[in-house]
Amino acid sequence: MSALGFPKTPSDKKALEEGAVFSPRFDPAGLVTVVVTDAEDGMLLMVAHMNAQALALTLETGIAHYWSRSRNALWKKGETSGNFQHVVEMRTDCDQDALWLRVKVLGHDATCHTGRRSCFYRTVGLVDGKGTLVDDGSKPLFDAEFTYRKPSS
Amino acid sequence: MSALGFPKTPSDKKALEEGAVFSPRFDPAGLVTVVVTDAEDGMLLMVAHMNAQALALTLETGIAHYWSRSRNALWKKGETSGNFQHVVEMRTDCDQDALWLRVKVLGHDATCHTGRRSCFYRTVGLVDGKGTLVDDGSKPLFDAEFTYRKPSS
User: Fold this and answer.
1) What number is the ipTM of this complex?
2) Residue extents of the structural domains in chain A
3) In A133-152, which positions are buried (b, 16+ CB within 10 angstroms) versus exposed (e)?
4) Domain A13-113 classification at class level
5) pLDDT profile of chain A (153 residues), mean per 10
6) Residues of B with CB below 8 A from A99's CB?
7) Shortest Cα–Cα distance, B20 to chain A (Å)
8) In what order do the strands lie in the sheet with B122-127?
9) Are residues A47 and B37, on separate chains, in Cβ contact within 8 Å?
């Protein structure tokens, strides 16, 4: 566990938006939204969430930790795949309910669980009045099926 | 109102992650998270949310519409400031619960309600064991106080 805590949201809007005190606004589930981009070329890699513990560990270790909403568990990104995220810079937005991590991805330089570099590999458009996705052709950088296989019982 | 609807999330994971049908996964509040970057230089401008209506209007008009969680209302970004967002490209992520808009900002080329170009104008770091924000010095591009003033009664 980390000892690092975060102060409550100030009631003064100016303090929240222009101040120097980091007081992240966690949602009712205790999470903030995190946008993750590549520090070198700015590519959007993923959108994830952090609770206070994941955020504290990220600040203290410089390695990105998240809260997995699907597994309901703390998630040190890269623990299985080796694709850890080294945090080059963290930013927050005007009302401190979102974070931006600029990272260097280790391992295969892949962030998506499908093996691709980015989770955003499909464009959205309207075709005959229906929302339609087009794959941008980006290829897996590692064998996700092998990496994330479950141990046989 | 828009007539455009969105199909339910497929139960098949492969269809969700690799398919061509756009089936955005709205959260229990009916929203998806939207990351907005500048189409030209990739700068992260803001994080916002869309409900189905805002998403449909965005796809149909090519101008970004959001759902304002603070005002509980549909929000055509730029309606007050003139800083509309023209959508150059929309993408979705592997499990279709987040969207990425690459936009050209009209008007003052400013996205933040403080008048700055981006909402992410402060870095986060640890100073003496406390989360501390440092302003990056980006200046307002329009007079937010004047633009968003309330009409006197």
Assistant:
1) 0.94
2) 13-113
3) beeeebeebbebeebeeeee
4) alpha beta
5) 84 95 96 98 98 97 96 94 96 98 95 96 96 96 86 63
6) 124
7) 4
8) A44-50, A32-38, A98-105, A85-92, B122-127, B130-135
9) no
